Amino acid sequence: MFYERELDIRNDKELNEVKNLLKLLGLKLPEGIDYIIGIYHNKELIGTGSLVGNILQGIGVAPNFKEQGLAARIVSNLIKKAVEMEKEQLYVYTKPEEVKSFTGLGFQIVSKAEPYVVLLEWGWDGIEAFKNRLACYPEGKPENSSCIVVNCNPFTLGHRYLIEKASKESPWLYVIVVEEDKSLFPFEVRIKLIEEGTKDFKNITIIPGGKYVISSLTFPAYFTREEEVPKAQALLDLELFTDHITPVLKVKRRYVGEEPFCPVTSLYNECMEKILPRKGIELIVVKRLEKNDEAISASRVRELIRNDKIKEAKNLLPESTYKFLISPEAEEITKRIKNSSSRH
Amino acid sequence: MKITTTVQAGSLESSDILITLTPGQNEDLIINIKSDVIKQFGSVIKNKIEQTLKTFGVTSVVCYADDKGAMDYVIEARVEAAVKKALDKEGDK
Questions:
Q1: Are B12 and A105 a contacting pair at CB < 8 A?
Q2: Which residues make beta-bridge pairs with A35?
Q3: Considering only CB atoms, which chain B residues are within 8 Å of A68?
Q4: What are the pLDDT digits (tens) for A247-293?
Q5: Which pLDDT belongs to residue B66?
Q6: Which pLDDT tens digit goes with each residue over B48-64?
Q7: Pick from B8, B11, B68: which is nearest to A83 by CB?
Q8: B27, B13, B36: which is closest to B60 by C-alpha?
Q9: In chain A, which segments carry CATH 3.40.630.30?
């Protein structure tokens, strides 16, 4: 019979067995494993699965043992462990041809980037719940509105210019703020500075992006390295955006700033040009606002902070952002920027 | 009795059901069901869960059930196991 147990990731012998099994199935050992199990048959490892944060990875069953419900056993075990670890929502990335094995276990498709990857989720606070919460924003607002997705790390005059232009040209504008805290300025600060810096626009609504708009969920880091990966990630994000978010907000247009510097963002913009029109969304690319022949960018502002030249950033920023940066409240953030070499 | 922790019993294997109990906000039993046979047996599954919860005196809970075609006595056993796990956990506090 089969026997399942937790494996010890510090035990090289066990880890090697897992590696070999996954290799046989064309998979790699996940990185940053929080929990890993193995299923044995006569002391031979024939199945495995891991939890990395709230993502199921490295799930595989040896070819001779397929069709015996072992995948269900592995996934059940991982779900139980995850719930024990107080995770409420679980995700899995898989090839399009493997989708059925997960939908059969109660997973729901969030987004597809064919032919590369499909994102599925398990739990009760998923994309549908997110859409229900999102649905209150467009109540009583005009249709055919526009949207813009921003990180604003921090909010500059460049962002303000983009929002102003979009607000003037649209009956209503939704400013969706990337919520995930991977930036030097925390989400709470970013959204506060956007709110303060756009108070004078009367036809905009600022919306927290939650976990479905440009998060590491739609940009799974562990998929990187291979060449086509950034493209798959951009597709995943944009398919989700156009399938789930724009229909709820009744948005017909997305504004975006031109991206001459960052190759990842520029590839993302390229994908937008292809996908959005196909889904009935018009894409408007706006040239960056320049000051002294230089495009205003948040990374330039961070660079000035890093080099102790906050004063020079004054003419790149709305008063509210500048005031914040020189306030005691910002001390911790500016310190972190000085100590960091992160581009984000 | 209120359920105050998150507990699970059962599995996603064929003919089983995975029961997840989480704390409720109000004094009532909220039951969410996912099943391939929800059209035919949704109300039967729901009644069975509700009845079992009541038997054990649960008055406040949000229950999620991932059904894989479990028979009613399986459902009853899984709900009972989940409630007892919740009581155990409560006792540990």
A1: yes
A2: A51
A3: none
A4: 999 999 999 998 777 777 888 888 999 999 999 999 999 998 888 88
A5: 92
A6: 999 999 999 999 999 99
A7: B8
A8: B27
A9: 2-124
pLDDT (tens digit, 9 = 90+) per residue, B62-90? 999 999 999 999 999 999 999 999 998 87
Q: Is B18 on the interface with A (CB under 8 A)?
A: yes
- pLDDT in the model for residue A139: 94
Considering the domain boundaries, does residue B54 fall inside one? yes
Rounded to whole angstroms, the Cα distance separating B46 from B75 reads: 10
Instruction: Name the residue range of residue B28's domain.
Output: 7-86
Q: Side chain identity at A281, as an amino acid letter? A: I
- Of 3.30.70.3040, 3.90.550.10, 3.40.50.1000, 3.40.50.620, the CATH number of A130-338 is 3.40.50.620
**Are the beta carbons of B17 and B66 closer than 8 angstroms?**
yes
| Cβ pairs A/B, distance under 8 A | 32
Work out the minimum CA distance from A54 to partner chain B, whole angstroms: 16
Please judge whether B13 and A80 are an interchain contact, meaning their C-beta atoms are less than 8 angstroms apart: no
The ipTM of this complex is 0.72
Interchain CB contact of A72 with B (< 8 Å) = yes
Q: How many CB atoms lie within 10 A of CB A82?
A: 23
Does residue B12 sit within a domain? yes
Residue A194 exposed, middle or buried by CB count within 10 Å (0-12, 13-18, 19+) = buried
Interchain contact B53–A (C-beta under 8 A): no
Smallest Cα distance from A79 to chain B, Å: 9
**A180 by DSSP, 3-state: which?**
coil
Fold of A2-124: Aminopeptidase (3.40.630)
Number of structural domains in chain B: 1
- H or E element, residue A244: none
- Residue A150 pLDDT exceeds 60: yes
| Nearby residues of B10 by Cβ (< 8 Å), 6 or more positions away | B16, B17, B18, B19, B70, B74, B78, B81, B82
Rounded CA-CA distance A67/A52 in Å is 25
Residues of A in contact with B64 (CB under 8 A): 124
CATH of the domain at B67: 3.30.230.10
> Does residue B46 belong to any structural domain of this protein?
yes
Which pair of structure tokens corresponds to residue B18? 């995975």
Q: Is the pLDDT of residue A220 over 60?
A: no
Contact: B8, A124; criterion CB under 8 Å? no
| Cβ contacts of A83 on chain B, cutoff 8 Å | 6, 8, 20
Q: Where in chain A is the domain with CATH 3.40.50.620?
A: 130-338
